[in-house]
Amino acid sequence: MGTAAAVHTIVGALASIEEHVGAPPEWVAATESQATFLREVYAVCRPEVKHIPEIESCGSTNAVELNAFATRRGLAVSFEQFGPDAAGALSVLDLRIAWTAPGYPTTVVTHDQHQFPAVRLPESQVTFRRAPSHPAPIAVISTLSGDAVYLTPLAAPRSDLVALVRRLTNEFSADGGFGGVVFPMVDLGVQHDLDFIVGLATRTADGRALQVAAAEQKLSLQMNEHGARAEAVTRMEFLASGESSPPPDLVINEPFLVWVERSSLAAPLFVAHVTRENWRRPGDLSAESDPEL
Prior knowledge:
It is a single chain. The chain is built from 4 helices and 15 strands. With 293 residues, it is α+β, with helices and mostly antiparallel strands. The protein has 2 domains: 144 residues, no CATH class; 83 residues, Alpha-1-antitrypsin, domain 1 (Roll), CATH 2.30.39.10. Strands 1, 2, 10, 11, 12 and 13 form a 6-stranded antiparallel sheet that branches. The protein has a 4-stranded antiparallel sheet with strand order 7-6-5-8, covered by helices on one side. A hairpin with a 5-residue loop joins strand 3 and strand 4. Helix 1 packs across helix 2. 22% of the residues are buried.
């Protein structure tokens, strides 16, 4: 099954609620995946999102305002009326792309002889690249807007999609030897929860803790001989509290390393790697008890 990502709408939703409640752009991660997101995505996209004309965002403590925004954009999204400590946000991407000239409808045949409707774009509209970490050629399609559309075969992504394409674009070198590109027409629709971002927290202008309580994203992609359209809707709900959230526990639930150091010694006094076979209650560890070996 296909998948998709549009991280600027995630950042757009966070930015819109920051502006509505007067929160600084200083979110606090509750998990390692959130820390990675803040470092590698939010920090990069936050300055950009307001300058992307295809993205519109709304954050509010008033569900009526958010539902009006959704209705105006023709979105099948709605919020229930919020309590006094709740809020929500929507961020929408509607990106329309036209090839520099229409392509030619054709057909692709898979290795197991299944046929699918496809598009051929000639060499005049496509250049080709290579990346050392990726075995297949990468087609770069020119568009009327100046945006570039990249296509390359990939059986299954083995990492985050955004991280993967950023790595590939950093490795590009020129390639040739192709007369054009043929690719299947596309009508993709996916929806997924953004569970990784739940728990991300900041502080409102009046000092209350504000935390992401729920988040989801709907995405679609259509491609044919004329161009492409990519859409994304990110929906978030937030909860505020008078007390700041305690920092999360470090939960060690896999084999672990433990060691003891003493400042007067050049090497650790004791080191152990502990696996689950040794996870059990020990004997008495009180100062009065004698060790038994």
